[in-house]
Design a protein that fits this description.
Keywords: Membrane, Transmembrane, Transmembrane helix. This is DsbA family protein. This protein has a six-stranded mixed β-sheet with strand order 1-2-4-3-6-7, sandwiched between helices. A two-stranded antiparallel sheet has the order 5-10. α2 links the parallel β3 and β4 (about 110-115). It has one domain: Glutaredoxin. It has nine helices and ten strands. The longest helix is centred in the N-terminal third of the chain and has 30 residues, at about 10-40. α6 (about 165-175) packs antiparallel against α7. By secondary structure, it is α+β, with helices and mostly antiparallel strands. The N and C termini lie far apart (about 70 Å). It has helices spanning about 10-40, 85-105, 125-135, 140-155, 155-160, 165-175, 180-185, 190-210, 240-245; strands spanning about 50-55, 60-65, 75-80, 110-115, 215, 215-220, 220-225, 230, 230-235, 265.
Length: about 270
Amino acid sequence: MSQKIKAPNDKNRSFLWGIVALVVICVVFIGFMVFNGRKSSDIELSAADVSFSVAVEDGVIQLRSTDGGGGDVPTADVYEDYSCTHCADLSEVDGDSIQAAVEAGQLNANLHSVNFLDSNGNESSSRTGAVAMAIADTGDAGAFWAFHDKAFTDQAEVARDWRFDELADAAEQLGVESDVVESIRDESVMEKYKPSLQANGDRLRELMGDQAGTPALYIDGEYLTVQRDPEDPSKLKDWVPDVIGRDEADADAPKESGAATETESSDAE
């Protein structure tokens, strides 16, 4: 019976290839960890150049003119969820208009953050909403508005991917006070602001019942349907020009013509 005779270096070659494979795996793993670790340090944000004030009152983020306006003007109550795609669509078309109208003293804006879309253990709505409220609570309007814009413009990255370290780094980039940045990093921001997000959601359910969903818009307490842009139905219509341009006689009767857009419902919790 014949036996196959192996070359004396075969075992050494196998051992060396095993070492090479192990080194490659380690390099890939370390590279992955370094990439993830650098993700938050790559954040580059700066505060927005705005001339309105921001304050948090009973869990509501209030934007007001700093130039003496904002008295007898329409008040818009906007209910939004930082994980809601339709809210991101609305922010895309009304963000600049809200800023301009508030700065000009033509509109008061109240932003009600809710957490309807927390689901399956992923508290993306609560996490981003709590951080937004914490930044607004510092009174730094530029930092808040820049974060609000970033959160909705890059929703998939911020709401669904960023965790507290990335959010804290973003707040730090925006010049937010160090104690607030630390409260974001150690996650205590959730304990402080999540109840406000839930209360805002409960308030919207009281207003809309089973139809509660985001985005939802109220002008001087009256519901205003969010419409599609007639020139581009793939987008939502900017409602601000219609609201600030209404005749005084129509101020208490917002128009609701046109089909309502889809909303992301509280049933998704």
